[in-house]
Amino acid sequence: MKGSIVGLLIGIIMTGAIGMAMYRSTDIDSNFDFILKYNVEGRSVINTYDDTYTKEGSPIIKMKLSKDEMETILSEMQKIDIFNYPESFPEYVYCSLPVKYNLEITYKGSKKNIAWTINNIPPFSINVETGEVSFDDKYKDNEVLLLNGIVRKIIDIIEAKPEYKELPEDKARYAGDFSLVNSVLLS
């Protein structure tokens, strides 16, 4: 008797787990998409609505993120409660560097658009010997820093794809090196 009850419970649990996994995959396919624009003037773009990617200065290419990648990104967005974020943020400093970010998300029929620049990053310090960027502990839950963490994960996913690796190297079309700026924005 105990064995049949245990077996029944295991069966119910397994059916529920499989059903949830199938629900999540279907949910991702039909209810979650985003466009992320980043880098100089936001000219690098991943668009999951059209399954395309544009690396600044390169033509648009086809790039589809897998269900697992989309689930990971959605999970990270849900962890920070991104749909309750403001559309813009206060400025801490004024910097004229043209590095801009814009994230447009659609999930279950709701749309959210969020924009930010280096001016929205809280005060930070840079170790001149190591290049390490650090923020005061009071900024650990700063919304822009949390967004930057998601952007870094999305960029890591993109840059690991063979389609990305086949694109030509960035051409310096602007004065200055933005690698330090990107390290601050995406630390």
List keywords for this structure.
Mago nashi protein, 6-stranded antiparallel sheet, about 40% helix, globular, about 190 residues, alpha+beta, two-stranded antiparallel sheet
User: Could you estimate the helical fraction of the residues in percent?
Assistant: 25-40%
Strand residue content: 15-25%
Largest pleated sheet: 6 strands, antiparallel
Query: Rough shape?
Result: globular
- Listing every helix as H and every strand as E from the N terminus to the C terminus, the arrangement reads HEEEEHEEEEHHH
As for the CATH topology, it is: Mago nashi protein
CATH architecture: 2-Layer Sandwich
Question: At the first level of CATH, what is the class?
Answer: Alpha Beta
Low-confidence parts: 6-26, 172-180
Mean pLDDT: 81
Counted beta strands? 8
- The CA-CA distance between the termini, in Å, is 57 Å
Order of adjacent strands in the largest pleated sheet: 4-3-2-1-5-6
Secondary structure tally, helices: 5
What structural class do helix, strand and pairing data support? Answer: alpha+beta
Our count of domains comes out at: 1
Work out the radius of gyration.
20 Å
Give structural notes:
The chain is an alpha+beta fold. The protein has a single domain, classed as Mago nashi protein, CATH 3.30.1560. Helix content is 39%, strand content 20%. It is built from five helices and eight strands. It has helices at residues 2-31, 67-79, 143-160, 162-165, 179-185, and strands at residues 32-38, 44-47, 52-54, 61-62, 100-107, 110-117, 124-126, 133-135. The strands form two sheets. Strands 4-3-2-1-5-6 form a six-stranded antiparallel sheet. It has a two-stranded antiparallel sheet with strand order 7-8. α1 (2-31) packs across α2 and α2 (67-79) runs antiparallel to α3 (143-160). The longest helix is centred in the N-terminal third of the chain and has 30 residues, at 2-31. It is globular, with a radius of gyration of 20 Å. The model is unreliable at 6-26 and 172-180 (pLDDT under 50).
